[in-house]
Amino acid sequence: MFNQQNKFIIQVIILLGFIFLLSACDGRPKGVLSQSKMADILVEMHKTDASLAEKGLTNGQYSNKAPYYNFILKKYGISQAQFDSSLVWYTINPQRFENVYDNVISQLTDSQNDIDKGKFHTIDSTEIGKARFDLWNKGTKYTFTKDSVRTRLDFEIKNDNLLFGDRYILKMLLFIAHEDSCKNHHIVLRINYFNGKTDSVYQVAHNDGLTRRYTFRMPAHRKLKIKSITGQLLGSSAYKGIFHATVDSIKLIREFKPANRDSLQKIVQKADTTNYKRTLKSDFPKGTKPEMKILKNGQVLKPV
Hints:
The chain is α+β, with helices and mostly antiparallel strands. The protein contains six helices and eleven strands.
C-alpha cells in the first residue's frame, strides 16, 4: 500500500511539473522566443522600417535593411537562426501569432500617441516665426567610382541674404563601400566671413557599406558679414586607387527669422563697418549647367 501511495504521489508531482513547464513556456518548443520578447523585437523592426523608409534608405530591399535588423537581434542577444525559427513556429500557430501582433499594435499605437502629444519633440518657443530656405543650387546626387576624375567633392554657396543669426543645416545621405580605399573619409561645413575668419565643423565618415544620413547644424554666431558657405561633402587624406561612394539627397537649409532681419543687419553693420566688395561670381563657366561642379583641373563632375 505504501509503495502504491508513494508511486501515486510521484506521478502527481511529475504531472504537476509537466503542467508547470507547459505554462512557463506557453507550449513553445525549446529555443522559440516568448510572445513578449517576439513582440518587442518586431516593434523595433517596424520602427526601423518606418525610419529607413522616411529617410529613403532602403528602397524596399532586404539587403539594405539587414545590418539594422542584425543590430536589433544583437541587442536582444539572439541569433538570426533563433529569430527565424521562432517566426516560423509562430506562423504555423496563428492564434499565438495573433497575440504577438496584438501586443505589437498596442506598443506602436502607444508610441504614436506619445509622438502626437509632443513627448519627444516639445514645441520650442524660439522656433516660432522661423523661415526655412534651401540654399543648395547644385546637383543633389554624385557617384564616385574608380573612373572618377576626383577624390573629393567641394562646394561653395554665395548668397546676399546670409546673415548673423542664421542657422545653416546641411543634410545628405552618404554611402561608402567596404572596398573604398581612401583614408580618413570626412565631411566639412564652413561659414566664411568677409574679414577672413572662418567657423567650421568636421565629421568623420565611415566606409562600412551602410547608407548613413549626416546632418550638420551650424549657427552664424559672429556679428560679421558672411561671404559664403563652403565645405566638402566628401573628402579624404589619401587616395589608394579604389573609389566607391555615393552622395545623395543633398540639402543646405538656411533657418532665419524674417522679422529680425533689419535689426540684425544693423547689429552687424555696427560691429563690422568695413565696406566689402561682394562678388557673386558663378561657380560655373558659360555653357555648363548650374548643377555641374567644375574641378580644379578644369574637368566637370556631373551629378547622376
